[in-house]
Every structure is written in structure tokens, then in C-alpha cells.
């Protein structure tokens, strides 16, 4: 892939992470905005907007590091495990989903397992949809790697958010992570195809 496309991917993902986090903050951290709306304090409000935008940039960088780390690990794993790699990926997907439910539930003293179960199911369903789109646009062998990336890598990237007190920052983090991961996964083959088409001229 050309360096121009790499730069384009970096900045477009960065912008996507910042904007998605900012929009999410309007819902997740609405109380923080309300505090500066009555009475209206434009300076503090502007600072809050910049804070969440910058936080989104950080989440985007986490997403991009996870994406390129996965691309590297995937190439090594294909060389080492060969035909067993898809099976190993399925096992890791199941473990990641189990971790999202059981270990998070065990870390909470009071409460029900239902929210954790629904979170894992929602992530799995969304990941299957994105993986099917990826497989349809490329080839069927891309389904499991795409599913692995969306479930396992997203879960790993989400760990800092899950460890925070309260659920606000956990939800504030997962939205841009999912959006950025989806964007990178679905745009990569388009950028590489453009590079091949340019070389073929």
C-alpha cells in the first residue's frame, strides 16, 4: 500500500475516532455538558469539547495500533500454524466472549450477569455482520480473520475502559473503537486494490 494511502488511513481514522467520541459524549456524559449550560460558560464548554475530541483521538490511536498489530501477528501465525490458524482463532474468539461475560461478572460484587451477556452477544452479532461484509467484498476465507479482529482485538483494546470505575468511560471508549475498527477493516482492501490498479497501469 502506498504511503499516501497509509497517511490517508491514519488521519481519516483519527478524525473518525475524535468525532464519534465527541458525539457519544453528548449522551454518555450529558451531565458534564449540562453543568456548563446553566449558567452558560462558553470557555468551560469549549474546553470540554476539546477534551472529548482529544480523548477520541487517543481511542483512535489505540484502534490503529491494534489493527496494525493484528496484521503483523496474523502473518506470523499463518506461517507458524498454517491450516490450524483459523481453528485457533475460533477458540480465541470464544475465550474472548467468555472473558467479557464471566470474568467481568466475577469482578462485580453486586449485580446480574445479564448486562455482560448482552454486551458480548451484541459485539458478536455486530462482528458477524461486519465479517460477512468483509468476506463478501473479498473472499470467504476472510470471514474468520475479520470476526477474530472485531471480537478479540476490540475486546483487548477495550480493557482500559473496562477497568475504569463506573460504566461511562467504558461506553465512551467502545463506540469509537468499534467504529474505527470497522472502518479500517472494510477500507483496507479498497486501498490495496487502488494501489494494485495504479501499478497495473
From TrEMBL:
Keyword Glycoprotein appears in the UniProt entry: no
Transmembrane segments: 7-28, 48-71, 83-105, 111-131, 143-163, 169-191
Superkingdom of this protein's organism: Bacteria
Keyword vocabulary terms for this entry: Membrane, Transmembrane, Transmembrane helix
One of the GO BP terms on file: positive regulation of sporulation resulting in formation of a cellular spore
Tagged with keyword Hydrolase: no
The name this protein goes by in its record: KinB-signaling pathway activation protein
